[in-house]
Automatic annotation (TrEMBL), chain A:
EC numbers: 1.-.-.-
Organism field: Microtetraspora glauca
Keyword tRNA processing: no
Family assignment from sequence similarity: Belongs to the acyl-CoA dehydrogenase family.
Domain Acyl-CoA dehydrogenase/oxidase C-terminal: 230-366
Name of the protein this chain belongs to: Acyl-CoA dehydrogenase family protein
Amino acid sequence: MELELSSDQKIFQASARRLLEKEYPLDRIRGMADGELRWSRDWWQKGAELGWTATIVPEELGGGSVSGEGVRDLSLLAEELGAGVAPGPLLPVNVVLAGLVEAQGGGPDHSAEIESLVAGESIASWAVYEPGVVWSPLEPRLTATPADGGFVLRGAKDRVEDAEQADLLLVTAMTPDGVAQFLVPTSAEGVSVSPQWSLDLSRSFGEVRFDDVRVGADALVGAPGAVEVIERQLQIAVVIQCSELCAALDRAFALTVQWAFDRYSFGRPLASYQALKHRFADMRTWLEACHATTQAAAEAVQNRSADAAELVSVAKSYVGERSLPMLQDCVQLHGGIGVTWEHDLHLYLRRVTLDQALYGTPEDHFLRLADLASL
Amino acid sequence: MTAIESVESFRSRARAWLAGNMPRLADAAPPSTEGDEDEQRWRRARELQKKLYAGGFAGICFPEEYGGLGLTPAHQQVFNEESDGYELPVVLNIPSFSICAATLLDMGSEEQKRERIGAAIRGEEVMCQLLSEPSGGSDLAGVITRAERDGDNWILNGAKCWSSSAYAADWGLCLARSNWDVPKHQGLTMFLVPTKAPGVKMNRVRMSDGSAEFCEEFFDDVVLPASAVVGEVDDGWSVASRQLFHERNSMGGGSPYISGGRYAPATRQMTPLDIARATDRAGDPRVREMIGRFLAMEKVSEQTVGRVSRAMATGALPPTAASILRLLHAESNEMAADIAVKIAGSGAATGAGADQGIGGQAGLRFLVRQGGSLGGGSTEMARNVISERVLGMPRELALDRDVPFKQVKRGR
């Protein structure tokens, strides 16, 4: 959480919290079944009206942020989603918007798509992962071959968030001129989407095949070889993930502290045992560190600082790596109740396991830090 | 009262003066062969401090009446920026200026402030802390060095240890028990003790890596005048608390009394990156992952210092949250030492030929790895403070609370 929020930011935060609490209490999420749609477009449109799709889009393209610091507002919003392990395409839509906004002026015009996404009328998702391949956004195997003034896309993507509900996919592809991105409607001929299993009960993913999908040159986002657009998308994705992770960890930790005060053994509360107190002290310290690095990453991405790429990988690797042992220790400190379906902890554990794994694992980001240090 | 010089005017004066008077680090004089290396370092620091004083750039944030310049932290900050790359007496910063002189300024008598702070600023004297004792480290208020009244004087008997660079100091702030009939925090008095006084015996403690920066002291009927008391008699805990505050502030990077950086560049440790390059292992993905982990931890530590310091300043976190920084700093230190040894591989144990080499340096550093988790209060104490004072969990059972100290059980 930010140390100090403006009154506008507090209102923004509170309106998001109300919408989430009303529609998605934890018991509803616990009850979500395979194959069920996790969220409705009506609900998403309400979120869009509250500004969920506007934070990082300039005003002339229909966007605008409450604080003037859109990335930090987005981070606030992601904290609300993390705290409620909420569904919704906040990450995919905003990551695609980040790419489209970044590429504006550097290639075909996508202002109509941007406006429709900001209005909540359409949904988009980043198709960047490929089946059986680890995080390597700059080395897609999916090809885009120039033909008839446009391109033909061949290949497959997976781990595409909300693929089944998406209208548009931002697809990374290899062209003769290097890696490029295309905005492809899911309704295009040759695009087929199939569901993918998800550990997180409120998130859904899909696999997407591209069988000779023909797109016009105007589907290109930016220009081939424009890797800084992909970098910006990654940075936005990681800020959203780390903010969610921090909030999920906050919630799980708060539940566990309360449990330690309420639960008595041998006539004393768990919170009075030094062996346990020391574990709480470690977790309290790590939580502070997780927030500090997430906040620093958000600020760097907001300001487009020279070290934004580095600070994003610092945050993702640290928060991602810390999150799993912290949540498992929360489970351990709860005792048997912590591994039951009825307890909320597994909802957080599911979200944290997902967030730390996607858009580069902590280990992927450690390696990126070594690269960035010119080692 | 004259108006304070503007920060920018001070900056340009400092820049010109430094260029004309202070040696550049790059062409620092080779160490002389007289005395041991540590003694030379301290002799050199006093000479440099004298130069700063003569040039009018010593004691920037100390009041003018005690020999300082009476300027603001912003002036100190620009001096630190301008003095980067110059050889400065940075060993005098912690503890002499930023802990001892700062505490005297808060709690000392007029005479103590005028004489001791003034002499330190002039480069004539150095101060140290005499707090921990061989009988116990974490329980500072349980010290058993005894101070007994003898007419107008006090007689000091006991032992201290873990006093950083006391061998180079002229005066020490010594916490002693002056009243055994009251509970432990209420019977303590702080004294300013001349380290060369008759009855004071000092040894340097050799550490497991061979270094000897810490000292132990024995006091055998050391006679101190009434004017040696800092603060009030039996109120030494208030003074010690100020010292601990200034110590945390110094270590956390928040002290305005630190001039020209906290650490000497020469004492900078080899980082895991240096070791990877020197051992030609930078291409190994296993090594690169470890390096990434080290870099992330370093950065996160720094970011957390900023966040927690701001939160303590606004009251969003209690002052005891400083223990969060203490704990994270220790974890980061331990991780760096571990990664250095892993990257150095067998070189950490067998060095390079007959020499220790860079791998051997990693190995030696590993021997004192726990130092960072012990010095300035162990991490176990930090965990108690965080769980009890930040999270509000029940306090550990203490059998010495509200009991006259003479009735408290002690080890042998």
